[in-house]
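Discussion board: Methods & Data

I've been asked by a reviewer to show the raw model output for two of the constructs in my manuscript, not just the figures. I'm not sure how much to include, so I'm pasting the format here to get opinions. Each protein appears as its amino acid sequence followed by a line of C-alpha cells. Is this the kind of thing reviewers expect to see in a supplement, or should I convert it first? Here is construct A:
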Amino acid sequence: MGPTGRGRRAAERRGRNPGVARRDPLRDRPCRDHPADPDLVHPAQLAGARRGPTVRCHGIESRSDAVTRIAAIDAGSNAIRFIAADFQAPSSYDVVHRIREPIRLGHRVFTSGGLDDATMDTAVGAFRRFRREIDRLGVQRYRAVATSATREAENRDRFLDRIRAESDIDLEPISGREEARLVHLAARTRVDLSRGRWILVDLGGGSVEVSLVDDSGILWSESYRVGTVRLLETLAAADGCHDSLEAWVGRQLGALTIPPPEAYPGPTAFAATGGNIEAIARLALSYVDPLKLALLPANRLDAVIILLSAMSVRERIDELHLRPDRADVILPAALVYRHFARLARTDHVVVPSVGVKEGVLLDVAEQAG
C-alpha cells in the first residue's frame, strides 16, 4: 500500500522519497507531449550505469571500530544540508543521519549584496545544531563547505566568524571549480564515465556548474552565475520588467553554453544533479529509488514544465506536495535543465541522486585513507 498524502508530504519535507510507487501527477492532468505510460529504465539497462559505491541508509546507530564516521555540511544558497556516514572503505559507506535546513542564504545576497541579519541568525543556529549532532554521533572527520551565496556575500567574514565562534565549525567558501570537482567525485560513483563523455550539470540556488567529464576527469568546466534563487530574486528586483518567469529565465540562459558536441569524439550523455532534478524526476516518473540512477526522458521533462507552468506556487505545494522552498524554484530549475539537455542533444537526462555533500563525504574519506 502506498503512503498516505500526509506520508508523502512528510517525506517531501524531509527531502526523501518514500521509495514506493506513487500517483503520477502528469497522468492525472491533460498535458501535451506526455507519453501514455511513465518511462523509468532500471540502472542495469543504462549504458554507463554502475553499482558502486555501496551505500545504505540506516537510522542513527553506534559505529564499530572498523569504520570511520564522517560528516559533510553543504551550505547552499537555497538550503543547508548535513549528512553523516560510516565508511568501511573510501567508496563504501552507510548513511546514518541527514538533516536539511530550509535556510535560503541567497535571500537578498544576489540583489543587495549581503546576508541579512535574520537569515544569518537562523543559519548560525543551524550550525549550532550541527555541532551537537557531530558530537552526539561521534563524528571523527568532517568538512563544511559554502557555495555561491556565501562566497559572494559582502559580509561573509562576519558570517564565517560567527559560525566559528558559536559552533566551533570552520565553514569554507569554495569556488565553482571546486563545486564541480566534488560533484564529479560523487557522480562517478553512480555513473560509469568510461563509456563516452558526459555533460554534468549541477544546479544550485546561486550558480550552475557545467562540466564535460569522462573517466580521466574533468575535461572542461564553467561556473555560471545563474541559479534558481538568483533568478527569482533578480526578477523580483527588476523594476519595470514585465517578463513572465519563463521569458525572464530564457533571456538569462542565452549566454550559457557547452563545448559543441562535434568538437569531441564519442557518445555524449547528460547527467544532472541537485535537489530540483530529483524532485522533477519524482514528479515525472511513477517510482524513483534515491539509491539508484533514474532515467528521465526529455519529453517527460517538457511535460513537467507544462504542468508547473499551469500551477501557482500554492497549488504546487497543495497538489504536488512540494516544500515551499522547492515549489517556487522548481520551474526555473526545470527550464535550466531543459536548456542544457537541448545543448547536449540528448533525449534523456540521467539523475544519479548525488551532489556536493556526497562529494564532500567521499573526498574526506579518500584523504583519510
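Construct B, same format:
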Amino acid sequence: MVEKIERREAPTTDQHRHARTNLPGNFRAALKGEDGTNYEVGVQDISAPGAGLLVDGVFENASFVELHMEGLGRINAHVARDFVGGIGVEFDLSGRHKKEMEAELKAFRKTVASGNF
C-alpha cells in the first residue's frame, strides 16, 4: 500500500525555512560519504535546500556527501546537522539550481503520491 505524502507547512516555532515533504517510510536512497563508502538510507523528508536522512553511519558536520535519489538523480550536499537516527543534509546548489530543484520536487511529489517510484 502506498502512503500519501504529507506536506507540512512550517509553524512559527519550526526551525525550517522551507516547507518539507514527508516521504513514505519505505523511500530509500543511496548516500556516498566523503571516504567513498556507500550507504543505503531512508529519506524522511525533502525540500529544495535539503533533506532529512535516516542513516546508520556516523557523519561529521560539514562533511561532503553525494545523494542519489530515484526521480531526482545525483545531488551534491554537505551534512548540516545530526539527529537521533539520522542527519540533515543541505544541497550544494546555486540560486538558479534551487529554483530548478523546487520545480523538480513538484513533479517528484506527484510521482511519489501516485506510487510510481
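Answer (T.O., handling editor elsewhere):
This is acceptable in a supplement if you add a one-line summary per construct. For B, something like: The longest strand covers residues 73-83.
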